[in-house]
Each structure stands twice: as C-alpha cells, then as structure tokens.
Write a structure and sequence with these properties.
By secondary structure, the protein is an alpha+beta fold. It has one domain. The protein contains one helix and four strands. It has a four-stranded antiparallel β-sheet with strand order 1-2-3-4. Strand 3 and strand 4 form a beta hairpin. InterPro entries: DUF397.
Length: 69
C-alpha cells in the first residue's frame, strides 16, 4: 500500500499575512485530482475535485460570485 501524499499549501502573493491579522486563504494542488483550500487562521480545510475547482475558478473569473455592495 502506498502512502497518501499530504497537501502542500501555498499562500497568494496578494495575501498580507501578519501575526496581528493572520487571515489568508491557502491552496494546495499537489495531490493529483484534488485541490484543498485552507483558512490560515483556523486551519479548517475544504477539499474539491480538480474539476470542481476548475469550474469555481471559471465562475469567479466571470463574476459569478461577486457580491453587490
């Protein structure tokens, strides 16, 4: 039985992480077919399939999730 690879998270360059306000979103794409998104402050992680993640990114780029002010 082979070992299950662990997610290797990375943070966006746009994140202004600091110890006084540690709120950043981290993403891991190193496990084939899976994407994990983690809240850096709480450590809570949500996993997606690669297709779900691709669909989400496409929708976000089209403004599908924009919130009206």
């Amino acid at each position: 039985m082979s070992a299950v690879p662990e997610f290797e998270f990375r943070t966006s360059n746009a994140c202004k992480y600091n110890n006084n306000d540690p709120r950043c979103v981290e993403v891991a794409t190193n496990v084939p077919g899976k994407v994990a998104v983690r809240n850096s402050a709480t450590g809570h992680t949500v996993e997606f399939t690669a297709i779900e993640w691709s669909d989400f990114l496409s929708g976000a780029k089209l403004g599908e999730f924009d919130v009206a002010a």
